[in-house]
Design a protein that fits this description.
The chain has 137 residues and is an alpha+beta fold. The protein has a single domain, classed as Translation Initiation Factor IF3 (2-Layer Sandwich). The protein has three helices and seven strands; from the N terminus they run H-E-H-E-E-H-E-E-E-E. Strands 1, 2, 3, 4, 5, 6 and 7 form a seven-stranded mixed sheet that branches. A hairpin with a 2-residue loop joins strand 4 and strand 5. The longest helix has 22 residues.
């Protein structure tokens, strides 16, 4: 009986999803080529808000890459942010502020890190932010 229990524990040990906190890369904070939509995470400083256009939330789940968990999480974040930028453009926003990241019940409202869930097969992250028009200088 004990041997069977040990076998189950060993086979299931690699299947668990790990919640990771990873550093944001500076590239995700800059407007994507041609989009003109800037991203501001957590309480990151930004120009004054001229107009609030609502909120948006998106998630992304990507297959785990051969180059590791961190790379997969970065890819999932890039995909979720791409969706966020697309809706911002549709609503004529030039920025998304107060961006938070989440995996299940683990939320991060940071200007330096993001939260991602990664399993042996996939990585996932959800993003949420406020769509705005910022004053231009």
């Amino acid at each position: 009986m004990l041997g069977a229990l040990a076998a189950v524990v060993i086979t299931q040990a690699g299947c668990a999803t790990q919640v990771k906190s990873l550093p944001l890369q500076s590239a995700v904070q800059q407007p994507a080529a041609g989009s003109g939509v800037a991203l501001y995470f957590g309480s990151q400083a930004h120009p004054a808000v001229q107009q609030q256009l609502g909120e948006a939330s998106y998630s992304a789940r990507v297959a785990r890459a051969q180059d590791g968990a961190d790379a997969s999480c970065n890819h999932a974040l890039a995909e979720a942010l791409s969706k966020l930028r697309a809706v911002a453009q549709e609503k004529n926003a030039n920025a998304v502020i107060n961006i938070q990241t989440r995996f299940h019940t683990t939320d991060t409202s940071s200007s330096t890190d993001f939260t991602c869930g990664v399993s042996p097969s996939a990585a996932a992250v959800a993003v949420h932010g406020d769509l705005v028009v910022l004053q231009s200088n």
